[in-house]
Structures are given as C-alpha cells and as structure tokens.
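Dear colleagues,

As part of the handover before I leave the project, I'm documenting each prediction I ran so the next person doesn't have to rerun anything. This entry is a single chain, and its sequence is reproduced below.
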Amino acid sequence: MRKLILFAAVMAWPFALSSSACAAPKNVLLLISDNHSAADLGCYGSPNVRTPNLDQLAARGTRFLNSFATVASCGPSRGVIYTGLLTHANGQFTHGHGFHNGVLLPGVRSVFDIVKDAGYRTGLFGKTSFYHLPSQYQLDEIQQRNNRDLPTLTKQAEEFIRSGGDAPFLVALCTHDPHPSGLLSDARRRLKPPPPRAIDPAAITLPSSVPDRPDVREEFAEYYEYIERVDAGFGEALAMLERIGKADDTLVIFFSDQGGAFPHGYTQYEPAVHVPMIVVDPTAKRRGLTTDAMVSLADITPTVLDWTSVRPPYPLHGRSVLPIVEQEHPQGWDSVVLSHVMHEVTMYYPMRTLRERRYKLIWNICHQMPFLNAKEVEERSPWRRTIESGEKLIGKRSVEKYVWRDPIELYDLENDPDELVNLADDPKHADLRREMSERLLKHLRKTDDHWLERYRMPLPGEKVEVMLPPPPGYAPERKRGGKD
C-alpha cells in the first residue's frame, strides 16, 4: 500500500465480477443517512419509528442483518465508503473541515473518480464530510446546501440525471438526518420539511446504552422524528427514479455512515458500528430477503465497481456483495475488521476490532489515555447531565469503564449483547483471545496498518506495553530519578 499511495501505481487485480455486471453500464444511487443505528428502522424491528418507504425498499431487495461501519466518525467513515480502504490505509484519519485537515493520501482515489474515468457522470447532493487534494473527488456536480432537505436534494439530483441523457450515473444522496440538532418539539414542527409526525418522548422505548431520563427521551424523540423524515425523503428519491425511467437499470444501496450520535456512539461498541444496509439489485430474481452475511461499509466501493464493470486501480479491502444478494446464509462472510484512529484531531484514540458472529475483540492501542467523546456527545444532555449529576452509569456501563478502557476487550455478544463483561483476562477464554488476536493482526498486516510499526498488541499472559521501544541508537536513554 505504501508504494501504491506514494506513487499511485496502477495494479492489475483479479476482481470477481458478478454475472449482473457483465452487460452494458448501469446506474447507481446511494442513499446515505447520518448517525443512524441499525436498530432504528421499521424493517429492523424498531417499535419507535415508522419507515414505510425503506421497509418497501427492503421488500424489493436484500436487507443485511450484520452490516457495520468500520469507523464511527462521519469524515473517516465517508473515506472508507468512497474508497473501499480501511481508515488506517486511506489516510482520512479525522474530519476534513477546519483545523482537522483530514484528507485521503496521495494516490488514493474515490469511487466517483474511478467510475468517472470509465464514462460515468457523478454527483453528490447533501452532506459531503470530505475535503481533498486537487486530483481527488472530481465529481461533475456537488451540492452541499440544504443537507437536511431531501426533497430539494432529490430535485437537484433529478435535474442532474436528466441533463445527462442516457449517460450512466453514480449519484449519492446524503442527508444530515437523523443526527440530532437539539431542537425541541415546537421548533421541529417549523422545520422545512417538517418531520412527518410528532413522537411522544414518554411513549418511546430507549436502548439500554443510555440512561432513562426525560432529557434523554426528548433527544431520542427528535432522533426518531428525523428518521421518519429520512424515510419520507428517500421515498421521494425512489419515486423520482421510477418517474425518470431509471429504476430497472439502477443499483440502489441504502445505508448509514455510522450509528447514533449518543453515548456509546463514536466508539467500536455495537450502537456505534451496527448500521442498516439495504441493497436492491434490479436484476436479482429473488427479492425481499434478509441475509446474515457480515459486511462492512468498506464493501460499498467494490460493490459499485462490480455493478458498473469497472476494475479498481489497486486491491481494495472490501468486496462486492452482489454475488450474495440472493443468499440468506452465504459461506465465507463470517467476520469484519473495524479500524478507528480519531474523531477529531483532539480526540486521538486508535482502536482495531475483529467482529465475528458471536465474539468481538477490541484492541485499544493507547488504552492508558482516556477515551474522549465526540463533541456531539460531550456537549449534549445524555452525557453532560450524567457527568454533572455524578451518576456512576451511562446506560448499563460504568462511566469509569467508558472513559478508561482495558487494553483488550473481548465480549461474548450472544450472552452479553451490552458488551459489559470483558473476557480478555479470563483464562477460560485465553485460547479464543489469542486466536482472534492473530486473525486481527494478520488482517492489519495485510492492509498495511502502519500503527503496527510502533504498537504491539498484547497476547494472553504478556505484559502490556503502550509502545514498542525505539530502535537501538534512536535516542539517549532516559535518566530516571535525581534532579533535572
């Protein structure tokens, strides 16, 4: 990867195209919500929201039960989505705006640029969450205003598609909803467009990851109302696709960039990384399926390239899901690797995770540092009032354990879905921890994780070190004791 990035080498790669990708060029529509956990959608079983349009989309396609954001942070997650490379390799370690300055490494190309070279028209309407070097993200059109107004964004997208005639397109509709904005119910009713209905905070069912208080209920009511606004907006986008006669040759993928913007969001815990994903392949013969394949957002770019019959310029970390959209239990889709560096530059906390069907292993690389919440969590009431009141728990997890993490976390998700009982130092699970650690390390080496040059994952029974010692002769030995 280093030579790839520095010299932008174009490498041949035996990319397995699905049978559906062997015909003429086809269109792609990405529908992307923001900070939206998988549990919070009607077709995923939510008792709190009504999402008839996305439920109908699932009935027309394939709903993925085990889909994961590889990093729970808007900018870095978009970097993974649009490149098919994990965060530690694509270079967008943090946000791009302001002083954070997170951009893709030289030589890394976005899916928009790759398909544009193959004759596709490319457009993004709504939230971008990226800045770029001059040769990157050269879309034909980007409209960033009104990023919570999906009807307006849909009209702009329709004009863009119509203006291209029969030219194939890749269009992303990216709303900032349902990320909460902190507006109370009366103010939400005055929004344009307003949420379809007001949701009673007292009537909702809260997740176990947050405390049950009136302020928390109010914030979740806002979040759920925005999810329903997402559903209505994407319903208009799907109707637009039918209206312009493109539904039968357009791959539609709906997903969220990460989980909800609440405590336990922006972490590697399930509320942060388990996201919804629905794929509609118009050539598929079987529809309305659910699949238990474990997939990640690193699979989006490979899937788009597969559908458009465009080969990637270098090996990607994800793979196309098109070969499995008609399979409920595909073989060989049993784990995903997640990689986090930081949310903002002031919140450095690198983590690497292996998520398997039953167990999850998290390596907190700099565990001796406190975990720092994203400002979206830190400054809002679910976290702030918990700390101000001196409460000991945030949901079911202790505040202390939330902030000060163990170096290795190992959870049995079947018996401990809230990820509370760390089995990493349990002798009964030593073999499992070692095996999962080795599998994770193998994948990190394969994907050129340069953090391995300075940090070493502790295996069972080993002394925990934050960093590897410097090479011989690197620096004078540090003196201990005595006066400075």
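The chain has 14 helices and 14 strands. Residues 210 and 385 are 12 Å apart (CA to CA).

All the best with the project,
I.
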